[in-house]
Amino acid sequence: MGAYRRRVVDTELDELLPGLAAIAVEGAKGVGKTATAQRRADTVFALDDEQQRSLLVADPGRLDRGPGTVLIDEWQRHPAVWDEVRRSVDRDPRAGRFLLTGSAIPVEAPMHSGAGRIVQVRMRPMSLAERGICEPTVSLHTLFSGRKSSIEGESSIELPGYVEEIVGSGFPGIRPLPGRARRAQLDGYIARIVERDFLEQGHKIRRPTTLRAWLTAYAAATATTASYTTILDAATSGQSDKPARSTTITYRDVLTQLWLLDPIPGWLPVDNAFARLAQTPKHYLVDPALAARLLDLTSDGLLSGSGSGVRVSYSTNLLGQLFEALVALDLQVYAQDNEAKVHHLRTRNGDHEVDFILNGPGGRIVAIETKLSATVDEQDVTHLRWLKSVIGDLLADAVVITTGRYAYRRPDGIAVVPAALLGP
After folding, report:
1. How far apart are CA 69 and CA 305, in angstroms?
2. What is the mean pLDDT of residues 33-57?
3. Residue 235 pLDDT more than 90?
4. pLDDT for res 347
5. Superfamily for the 8-122 domain
6. What's the rounded Cα separation, in Å, for the pair 66 and 229?
7. Is residue 48 within 8 Å of residue 103, measured between CB atoms?
8. Using one digit for the tens of pLDDT, what is the confidence trace for 103-119?
9. Neighbour count for residue 380 (Cβ, 10 Å)
10. Nearest Cα to 34, choosing from 78, 67, 4, 66?
11. What letter would DSSP give residue 73?
12. Calpha distance 5→244 (Å, rounded)
């Protein structure tokens, strides 16, 4: 507890807890949910402890008798507790009564969604700002203001540093480890997904090697809109006995239940909501370090352009894809803090693409491109200028995120920001 590093989601919880009776903090295993929630709890029920779980099953009234804020950790181990909390909130709706943390959507879903009683908050691995590698000088909140204020700052992080952040992981328990131990922990994390987590979600995997190959192919599809059929073909290249489509849908669904997939949906600058929904999502794992590890990529291998045996048509620049994934993680964290959503843009004929579209309160939009370079040229801002011509004043700001040293605003008003200098 003494070594706790404050997370961006702490601000959200500080604002929500005084006004809400129950909050569920959800996310993949190892992102830090328990440590964050414990700092606000007076009573803790750890349901991954069999004895504590048995006590709560035998006497659900303990929830009402617990003093102060009650934390129910890993609530999905006893799904009935969700409905018990909901009923307790109905009886006593005082603010700050319950925190729940969960690392999976339970197989046996609660009887009630909890709408109106339990508010769900997503927690992800650590962003660059949370890792403390550099003090951010550019705020997403300010970009949403539309004031086009001055942009400045100098980063000490260059390309090798970003590569280290890609492979270094945003999981707080894994990140501080030395290289070999960190790789072993990531290998163990992936092995647990394949060997245990699917079974705990009610799905016995007949061919674990196929699931592992599918995960590897999905990692190679990072930051692309490759179809699930294409991913399956890459995972089972040369195999005549391919898994059924329903099997791969199960892979996707269970990994989503485990909060391990973090896709970014598509968006178009049109009023037709159905057209927006039709856009294909971009693929991302919850932490780019998992993708790098699945692909057997080290920092040296990424910098030299070697080290992965993956051969698939949609994977042409793995370092660029993984840098974009690192930025995607940051933007998901910062956007949530600003009550915004993250999308990507690709027109149907593919003639215009923008890596990230952030939709903020009031319909304001921040458009962001990523570039694996320290410099920005005219080609890098072409699609940002096109978007401005389409949506006009709805575009609060436009940004190119780079691996360079300096943050500044170009004469055309587009901001150039090193990834390490962007914060919430």
Report:
1. 50
2. 95
3. no
4. 87
5. P-loop containing nucleotide triphosphate hydrolases (3.40.50.300)
6. 50
7. no
8. 998 877 665 666 778 99
9. 17
10. 4
11. E
12. 44
CA-based nearest residue to 372, from 404, 344, 414: 404
Contact of 324 with 316, CB cutoff 8 Å: no
The ranges assigned to domains in the chain are 8-122, 128-423
Nearest-angstrom CA–CA distance, 7 and 127: 9
Q: Which one-letter amino acid corresponds to residue 291?
A: A
d(CA 357, CA 11): 23
| List of E strands, 271-412 | 341-346, 353-359, 365-370, 395-402, 408-409
Helices (H), 287-381: 288-294, 299-304, 318-337
Note whether 421 and 136 are within 8 A (CB): yes
3-state secondary structure of 423: strand
The pTM is what?
A: 0.94
pLDDT (tens digit, 9 = 90+) per residue, 282-334? 999 999 999 999 999 999 999 987 655 555 555 458 999 999 999 999 999 99
Task: Give the pLDDT score at 100.
Answer: 98
| Dihedral sign of CA atoms 371, 263, 133, 368 in order | positive
d(Cα 139, Cα 132) in Å, to the nearest integer? Answer: 15
- Return d(Cα 341, Cα 331) in angstroms, integer: 9
Ranges 27-36, 79-88, 234-243: which has the least confidence: 234-243
Strands 422-423 and 408-409: unpaired
**Residue 5: pLDDT over 60:** yes
What is the DSSP-derived secondary structure letter of residue 213?
H
Query: How many C-alpha atoms does 335 have within 13 Å on its Cβ side?
Result: 23
For 177-216, the DSSP string reads S-HHHHHHHHHHHHHHIIIIIHHHTT---S-HHHHHHHHH
Edge-first strand order for the sheet with 43-46 is: 43-46, 70-73, 98-102, 22-26, 118-122
Query: For 1-5, 132-136, 177-181, which range has the lowest pLDDT when averaged over its residues?
Result: 1-5
**19/24 Cα distance (integer angstroms):** 14
In the chain, what percentage of residues exceed pLDDT 70? 94
